Amino acid sequence: MGGMFSSPEILPPSSPPDPAKLALRPEESKSLDLSDGRTLGYATYGSTNPSDPAIFLFHGMPGCRLVGRSWNKLCKTIGARLITIDRPGNGLSTLVDRKLTQWPEDVLSVADHLKIESFSIVGGSAGGPFALACARFIPKERLRRTTVVCGIAPIEAFLDTTPYLSWRLGGFTPWAVKLAARHMILPRLLAPYRDLDPNRLKRTLEDQCQTPEEKEFLKPDPNRETDLDDAVAGLLETFKQGTGGFMLDGSITSSDWGFDLKDIDGERVWLWHGDQDAVAPVATAKWIDERLGGGRLRVLEGGTHSTIWKHHEKEIFEQSAKR
């Protein structure tokens, strides 16, 4: 692969990825064998005290359990256990066709394995639908609270909040949008990460940093727990089985979710969203909030799909850690 950088069109990254960052620690390489023959990969971060409150964090897409690296130190500071799980086909979890409504069973399997009686959930971006599924199906005796940060909404939300899509044409529009999501949007999102050479991945991530705030992330910062090398490690782990997990995530989130948001106990759900989110428009978060009964959404002025974490991560995790 090294000869690829001789081409003027393909530049090397600013520095090679740090091998120490690409290596996985023992607590990041755990797995649970289920009775149906599947394996769930998971990682543990934050506090190691079993009496501290537990938070399950659901990754976006592409993503895997290594997302927890970003909040390892923070969760240690606030005294919270952080558990992250690979969804099917991502990282160490077996690739098998699963419905969104089946995800809560997997979460409870890991919680039972770790002897965690009650916990909170944080779902970011594409992890949002999986968090809401848990809010719907996990009993309140087990699930204390659910927080969705910049969550992806159902296709129906995009149809209802986008004027030129609101005319359904007898069901043709929803069908066409779902088809486009699976066969056009998902492959396009996947394209930059098909080459799993660490140097190429890091260069791709550097090139994707376009805004001044994103470019700030490229500069060394001793106060920041993770950097692009951690993101490279995460992508390598995400796609270690291939692209099936990513495509399954996309198919699940763009299909019928299998439950009505109105059936969720909205009193135990919190939504955080930026008004400048270009990935998940804030109008779709308002659509979800309305179906949860209203009053669950906090809109952050100037917030984007990524800056919410930078400016409000401590508040989000402290709220989730409350018993």
Automatic annotation (TrEMBL):
Annotated spans, Disordered: 1-33
Q: What is this protein called?
A: Alpha/beta-hydrolase
The organism that produces this protein has a lineage beginning with: Eukaryota, Fungi, Dikarya, Ascomycota, Pezizomycotina
The AB hydrolase-1 domain extends over 53-311
Family matches, as Pfam families:
Abhydrolase_1
Q: Where is the composition biased (Pro residues)?
A: 10-19
Q: Which organism is it from?
A: Paraphaeosphaeria sporulosa
Question: Which UniProt keyword terms apply here?
Answer: Hydrolase
- Residue ranges annotated as compositionally biased, kind Basic and acidic residues, are 24-33
Q: What GO annotations for molecular function exist for this entry?
A: hydrolase activity
